[in-house]
Amino acid sequence: MKCKACGGKAAVNMPQHKLALCAEHYLQWVPEQTARFIKKYWMFGPDERVLVAVSGGKDSLSLWDILIRLGYQADGLYIGLGIDEGIGYSSESRRLCEAFAQKHGQKLIVVDVEEQYQSSIPVLAQKGARGQVRPCSVCGVVKRHEMNRIAADLGYDVLATGHNLDDEAATLFGNTLNWHKELLLRQRPVLPGHNGLARKVKPLCRFYEKEMTAYALLRDIEYIYDECPFSVGSTSIYYKELLNQLENQRPGAKLAFYVKYLAAREDGLFAEETERNQATFGELRDCDRCGQPTTHTGLCAFCRLVSRDENGKQ
Amino acid sequence: MKCKACGGKAAVNMPQHKLALCAEHYLQWVPEQTARFIKKYWMFGPDERVLVAVSGGKDSLSLWDILIRLGYQADGLYIGLGIDEGIGYSSESRRLCEAFAQKHGQKLIVVDVEEQYQSSIPVLAQKGARGQVRPCSVCGVVKRHEMNRIAADLGYDVLATGHNLDDEAATLFGNTLNWHKELLLRQRPVLPGHNGLARKVKPLCRFYEKEMTAYALLRDIEYIYDECPFSVGSTSIYYKELLNQLENQRPGAKLAFYVKYLAAREDGLFAEETERNQATFGELRDCDRCGQPTTHTGLCAFCRLVSRDENGKQ
Question: Does A256 touch chain B (CB under 8 A)?
């Protein structure tokens, strides 16, 4: 297999794009494509300050690396969740984020949930009915809240996350299997900023997971190989496996599923504009404690979570 | 496993409905459910004349059987496609339809495509680029045209087909993977009559394929076991297999996928009403030869097909 750009030996073969590239050209191609997606989906401009949420995994560290290479003002945000599970998951992921920041001379902001709120994610999950089986939903609430809080406090315009195509396609697949209207309408590469919240963007949303693995390996990025121990057996991993089967049978099917969804929306498939969005935003209030938008009266989901006592009562 | 109705030994277990029934109660339950779906989706009333398209398979013969048991005026329509493929597929399926009609004292209308148009489906498929690999798309055009023609000529109000849940879910899955807007908006249990065409209905659309197999077996309906030899390896069979995997993992997932799609449409997920439908219907013309609606100028797809010469030219 030869590199399409130089005819040299290909390092990465991508049948989904009918494209093979050598290491050098692959490491050029990925940032070029990222820059293209950032423009195509109106994610952010060259003067905006970007905060990249990094977990220590290949996707988010690669995203940070790419944005730095593209010349953006991108700082990192690491949120310590206090997950150990016998493999020191959080401490190892923090170490890797700090090592990356140091190596590249970049600023990393660290928030430790346990220090800040006197509870790790597993402890918070134990407190309420929500997330008792698996703390992922609690973890989602906490991460979203902390990302919003830090971005607002420190004046970032944009929050960037490392969601790749496999993540986005699996989410879309789940929302489609259940025809979950609100979630189907919410899934976009860009979520506009609103009411003091930074804009949220997913610059890697069109890269296959294996493309990001190849990028991280070829760029010598040290990342945590383990998935979060709580994600094992999750629905989203099951959906990823089903989509991988489809992809193996028909290379490009996963990308087509996601990209055609975006195109169909653009083309007016859904009854989404004006009324519905206004209705959704119209229902948002400010949380009484933290001020972040919420659909609840009184406290938002996060503030209710951290103010629970050990019996799950407010 | 016990029958939920009488406590006797269950013959059919349906984890997807958390329901097990003995043979007697299962054979009551299927028509009751069918009657419920006919009403729920406004398919037809007791005074309307129904033409059931029968292929000799378990679904369409079971549908005919159910409609007869429910007291509807339902005649059968068999369309001979001239498919042999070494197993006498069409002649055997015709024999089974005729045997069913005779056994139940019902009227069966037989159309033979080869007699009528001097070409079997495999021959028609050879004539043009369309369907040369697999004649399924040509077959679809021919069956649709002939069903419409007979229903109009003989004054039937309604055309009923035996599509089951597995068929509908696989179609929906394919249309969703490709976000095919027009097809997504066209898939309903009822397609309203239009411009001289009979209303089209799918009364079995909420029954699992295995539920129809159980019905046909318990009712001693003799049906053709073979799938059409041309359907082997088709995309829709591949989608059915993927959905079966999902169903095995999560009983009820297939039904939820289809039913939630219908519910989300009712709930206004899609921008489908008024303008779009008017635009679609507005583009329809009458075929110059047969008069059936078509989006083409001049001849419809069917008339172009049967008027081709052996080199595929008109």
Answer: yes
Q: What is the three-class DSSP state of B56?
A: coil
Angstrom distance (rounded) from CA A219 to CA A68: 13
Distance CA A244, CA A251 (A): 9
pLDDT 10s digit of each residue in chain A, 314 long?
Answer: 999 999 999 999 999 999 999 999 999 999 999 999 999 999 999 999 999 999 999 999 999 999 999 999 999 999 999 888 888 899 999 999 999 999 999 999 999 998 988 888 888 888 766 546 678 888 889 999 999 999 999 999 999 999 999 999 999 999 999 999 889 998 999 999 987 899 999 999 999 999 999 999 999 999 999 888 888 888 899 999 999 999 999 999 999 999 999 999 988 899 875 444 554 555 788 999 999 988 888 999 899 988 887 666 76
Distances (CA, A) of B58 to A301, B51, B122: 52, 17, 24
**How many CB atoms neighbour CB A112 within 10 A?**
15
Contact B249 A263 (CB under 8 A): no
B211-223 pLDDT per residue, tens:
999 999 999 999 9
Residues 6+ apart with CB under 8 A from A312: A127, A128, A129
* Other residues' Cβ atoms within 10 Å of the Cβ of residue B105: 7
Do residues A91 and A98 lie in contact, with contact meaning Cβ atoms separated by under 8 Å? no
A contacts of B177 (beta carbons < 8 Å): 246, 253, 256-257
**At A286, is the secondary structure helix, strand, or coil?**
strand
Q: Which of A239, A232, A215, A244 is nearest to A58 (CA)?
A: A215
CA distance, residue A233 to nearest chain B CA (Å): 12
Within 10 angstroms of residue A63's Cβ, the number of other Cβ atoms is: 28
Q: In chain B, which among 170-189 make CB contacts under 8 A with chain A?
A: 176-179, 181, 184
Query: Among the residues of chain A, which ranges form H helices?
Result: 23-40, 58-69, 89-104, 113-117, 121-127, 136-153, 165-177, 181-186, 209-218, 235-249, 253-266, 275-282, 301-306
Q: Which of A206, A204, A195, A198 is nearest to A48 (CA)?
A: A198
Q: How far apart are CA A144 and CA A81, in angstroms?
A: 12
SS (H, E, C) B203-229: CCCCCCHHHHHHHHHHCCCCCCCCCCH
Tokens 């997932």 sit on residue: B253
Bridge partners (DSSP) listed for residue B160 = B52, B201
Instruction: Kindly report the nearest CA distance between residue A19 and chain B, in angstroms.
Output: 22
CA separation for the pair A236, A241 (Å, rounded): 9
B190: amino acid identity, one letter: V
Q: Which helix (H) or strand (E) holds B114?
A: helix B113-117
Specify whether the CB–CB gap between B142 and B302 falls below 8 A. Answer: yes
Which of B61, B52, B71, B62 lies closest to B26 in space, CA to CA? B62
| Lowest mean pLDDT segment, chosen from A74-78, A215-219, B54-58, B268-272 | B268-272
Q: Do B271 and A271 touch (CB under 8 A)?
A: yes
B66, two tokens? 């159910």
ipTM over 0.95: no
